[in-house]
Amino acid sequence: MKKLAVLLIMLAPLASAQQTVTSFKSTEVSPGMYMLDGEDGFGGGNVTLLVGDEYVVLIDDAMAPTIAALMDAAGKIAGRPVDFVINTHSHGDHVGGNEHMASQGAIIVAHDNVHKRMLAEPTLNTGPGALPVVTFSDAVTFHINGYEAFVFHIEHAHTDGDAAILFRDANVIAAGDLMFHKLFPFIDLDNGGSVAGYIAGQRKILALADDETRIIPGHGSIASKGDLYADLKVLIDSQDRVKTLLDEGMSTEEIVAANPLAVYHDDYNWGFITTERMTRTLIRSLTTD
User: Fold this and answer.
1) CATH superfamily of this structure's domain 2-236
2) pLDDT attached to residue 42
3) CA distance 22 to 17
4) pTM above the 0.90 mark?
């Protein structure tokens, strides 16, 4: 769990704008379903809000420092407290609001491994209510507000506890961090993630989508099946470019210096997963898997 603590420290620069995040904007994806994301800085991962006559549901709840702004945005739409929170994985920018949400009466739901990792990590196991109280091993279905929400586990992808949510009736998929739209993805090799699993997970999501499906990524703007396919092609080609240099006998530092992902730098490099860091992740994955 020391590695997870290091991860949270590494996330700190990305979240440096969190003190200035005072509001979340909402985008209606389907009737009664919204994507919420930070309007004036980094607010954590994207949040999905589902509102209906029966229940109010959040998929992820961003970070502890931004929970007040998130709840303000959700409250203006829902007009009442949240009943359920579904965590897509255990990273602090997606589960940081759990303790507050539980104190307001929400039931936290996640994969078994999310509970295990949060239980063992003091920076996430911050007090009563921080941990999921309902967990599942493979899949669970919610029947809420006229929607069927199919929550399914994707193995060893972004982490070892990832879940994505298919809203069958709305033709919407909340992908969690199985999609960083137009960004190099963070694949957490130290917490059960793998490049092969990430690619397989994206393919699984693609198989559930059609040309009309709207995909809510963990980070980035609302996307389509074509957008996800384009991001997947970048990841596969990036892995192939690195593998070619490894097969030629080049060392890690030689590959980094060669900059095989330069072709994608302008479109996919960002503050947390830079082109160099993506290269090093691929090298490590290819030499240890």
Assistant:
1) Ribonuclease Z/Hydroxyacylglutathione hydrolase-like (3.60.15.10)
2) 86
3) 10
4) yes
